[in-house]
Write a structure and sequence with these properties.
about 325 residues, alpha/beta, Rossmann fold, 6-stranded parallel β-sheet, 10 helices, about 30% helix
């Protein structure tokens, strides 16, 4: 679906608590919509006053907001929310006509019928007539965006030998942990794998990486040629992904896994410490492997080919189709 030139500019509003992993899902979907139809994008970050933040979504009112009241302002066509903080506002905005078309990303833990469309990861197993399932999560990575990011870092990256191995390291979550001991072990395995192929490493840590785990992995990789980003200056992640021959991703993040699988490079899933069994993440790994994009980490770094995943574009087309059907 490509509606450029067929409809007037759509006004898209992206609503989240501003955390990168949450906001990027909603913003990625909005950007994908704007590539299919003329659109402007407004980003709103919301926060609830501390005493009210723990309340269920149905019990919150706009008066309890600490910031983000503009999320309820009139004047948008498609309202895209992601994360728990956006849920009360998604419910509220639909109660006041003329209501925008309300899209909620992730499982809202509320009946899907309370939204116009729910874009949910297939591994969540959410069901409903207005649920659109995708593999993993929406994101902002596209081949074009990676190509745009590369020139700013080209001079520094040119010094690193191939194969270049990009690594995206996560951290502690409900289902997984990254202890210092496990991080050190992973670091040693990655170092040995890169050394065996005569390559170089391009690594980023997430905001969830525990400081002691990051320090342990950095120490284990101290002699490995490459670039471990220190978090200062412009984030080189997109340039890393553009130039990489392989991508390593810890198993704790649907976002990182689906971003990696959109590159067309072999995606190697790094194991973490399980805090509790997670059938959802097992289903995600199985789906990524079935798509041909990912395999469990193999220190030999085998090479394989697959069609890059483009689930965010597929979700964007579904949003436009449902929006048009509502009239």
């Amino acid at each position: 679906m490509d509606l450029k030139g067929e409809i007037g500019p759509l006004r898209l509003r992206v609503v989240s608590d501003g955390r990168a992993g949450i906001e990027n899902q909603a913003l990625g979907l909005a950007e994908a919509i704007s590539r299919l139809a003329p659109a402007t994008i407004e980003v709103v970050r919301v926060a609830w006053k501390a005493p009210f933040d723990p309340l269920p979504a149905g019990c919150k009112t706009p008066a309890m907001l600490a910031q983000g009241h503009e999320a309820l302002a009139p004047g948008c066509d498609i309202w895209i929310g992601c994360g728990r903080a956006s849920l009360p506002l998604a419910l509220a905005v639909r109660r006041h006509p003329p209501a925008p078309f309300v899209v909620q990303i992730q499982d809202p833990r509320l009946p899907p019928r309370r939204f116009d469309l729910v874009v949910a990861p297939a591994h969540d197993g959410l069901e409903g007539d207005n649920v659109f399932e995708i593999l993993g999560a929406p994101h902002r990575v596209t081949l074009a965006r990676l190509a745009e990011a590369a020139p700013a870092f080209a001079e520094r990256l040119a010094a690193f030998s191939r194969p270049r191995v990009a690594a995206m390291i996560g951290g502690r979550s409900k289902a997984f942990d990254l202890t210092a001991a496990h991080a050190a072990g992973l670091g040693r395995e990655i170092a040995a794998a890169v050394a065996a192929v005569g390559g170089s490493l391009l690594l980023t840590f997430s905001r969830r990486t525990p400081p002691d785990a990051e320090a342990a992995m950095r120490a284990a990789l101290a002699e490995t040629p490459g670039w471990i980003w220190d978090g200062r200056g412009e984030n080189p992640l997109f340039a890393f992904l553009e130039t990489a021959d392989h991508v390593l991703v810890t198993e704790d993040s649907a976002n990182m896994a689906t971003e990696a699988a959109s590159t067309g490079r072999p995606v190697h899933i790094l194991p973490m410490v399980a805090r509790r069994p997670s059938a959802k993440f097992a289903r995600l790994r199985e789906a990524l492997e079935a798509s041909g994009a990912a395999r469990p980490f193999d220190p030999a770094l085998p090479v394989w080919n697959y069609t890059p995943l483009d689930e965010t574009r597929r979700a964007a087309a579904a949003v436009l189709e449902a929006f048009a059907a509502r009239g």
